[in-house]
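Minutes, project check-in
Item: structure for the 195-residue chain
Input as provided by the requester:
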Amino acid sequence: MFITTDKTMKRLLAGACATVLGLGVAGGALAQGYGGPYGFGSKASPREIAAVDIDAMPDGRGLPPGKGDYATGNSLYAAKCASCHAPDLSGMAEVGGDKLIGGRGSLASGKPVKTIESYWPYASTVFDYVKRAMPLNAPGSLSDDEVYAITAYVLGEAKIIGKDEVMNASTLPNVKMPNRDGFVSDPRPDVYKYN
């Protein structure tokens, strides 16, 4: 049986962590460095932060430069989206691809159909989600122009925008989604006060 003090255990853990990280004996010096008591991590660079700071707000803040149209989105959807969401955007449950359009007016029924068309309150959310999470096999791989185009295609197929409209950082926040008024705003203050 091995008995140790709390102080000794912390030293052993710091040494073991340093060894696992390939820092060897010198890694013990990191124990009080950046990243907490065990020296994990490093300060994120502005470039690293910019790579994940991609949120698109309902009023358009955070939307990047670029543009996309229905015709371009049609081709991109066929190549990058249809294998999960079906060529007609009806979804493919067997592979986990949600239905994207349809279901307007169904939310208060006994069989609600939650789609971009029936549920999502802001078009910027469509852009944000596609940019972050799609396609499933390569999330984040689409260019901003490709995301704008796919968004234009889906919104056009849902008859939310005209098929001749171009989506960009100026036009996307002005799209009036069918269920925009179906949500109740939360008047409570943000207790975390994110910067």
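Outcome recorded: Helices lie at 6-20, 46-52, 70-80, 82-85, 123-133, 144-157.
No further action items on this chain.
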